[in-house]
Amino acid sequence: MNKLKFKAAVVGFAALALGLTAVSASAQCDSGEVVVKLSHVTGGTTHPKVVASNNLAERVNKELNGEMCVEVYPNSTLFGDSKELEALLLGDVQLLAPSLSKFGSYTPKLGIYDLPFLFKDMDQAIRFMTAEKGKELLNSMSDVGFVGLGYWLSGMKYFSANKPLLVPSDAEGLKFRVQTSDVAKAMISAMGASPQPMAFAEVYGALQTGVVDGQENTWSNIYTKKFFEVQDSTTETSHQVLAYLFMTSTDFLESLKPDVREKFLAICDSVTMEANESVKAKEETNKQNIIKSGGKINELTPEQRKEWVDAMKPVWKQFEKGIGADYIEAASKS
Fold this sequence. Notes:
The structure is a single chain. Strand 8, helix 6 (about 180-190) and strand 9 form a beta-alpha-beta unit. By secondary structure, the chain is of the alpha/beta class. Helix content is about 40%, strand content about 20%. The protein contains 13 helices and 13 strands. The longest helix is centred in the last third of the chain and has 35 residues, at about 260-290. It folds into two domains: about 5-105 and about 120-155 and about 245-290, D-Maltodextrin-Binding Protein, domain 2; about 160-240 and about 290-330, Bacterial extracellular solute-binding protein, family 7 (D-Maltodextrin-Binding Protein, domain 2, 3-Layer(aba) Sandwich).
């Protein structure tokens, strides 16, 4: 490969009509190189997944020049949510980074990252993800043909609502938007509230019109999507980690020459570590941006947090068999 070139692409007339743009980090690959397609569903230029994907391409295309070349296809330009995992198994794409909540039909074990109030902060989550038990989970779908290369963090999740949420009973009777995760639904039910699965793009309007009373998200999502404008306040619950499984297929990994595979995996580890460290700083910045923009943030006392943890432990028990008690114990002690 002679020179890495990145190019911006506007995707489709319909997307243009909606004011949506996508940036493609596709490199110009030379013949003889192993061409690796990285597909993801996120647009823009600053999202943690976009930054990590582009950094990976830049590193691989520079350090494995002549051996491997990564092409990045963002914003569902290659495959969307419903098709990307199938495409990975078929060899039509080699790298993905789906949300961890997408794997319930393949393995219940990754549901550990949805367990509420298991991780206090991103540092605890990273300690578990990089320890023995966390690394074991990267191979929890090897029977399907999936291999995890690492976890890309997007931040911790926080509850916002049309009233302050300081203890679980404050949520009683409210409707909360959640992802389509059985663990997330059980969490909301444990609060005495009603879970409402809903597409992310619909959340602001649903909060504004009262279709739902609250939601859960990272500081970056709450700030950039302006959820704080249509909510009474956000509580610093740090109740779940929002992360993506940076993954490939066993067929692709085994097809690489041993020396190329070793260098590729080392780059993956380095990019993942750098990406997760940068997310911590970005999340703190966007927390302060919410405050500067007039949003209100509630902090929990140790006693209030304990009340949340105690209320959620039955959810841990509910999913313990599928996830594994040993994994939950290891995570809680990380």
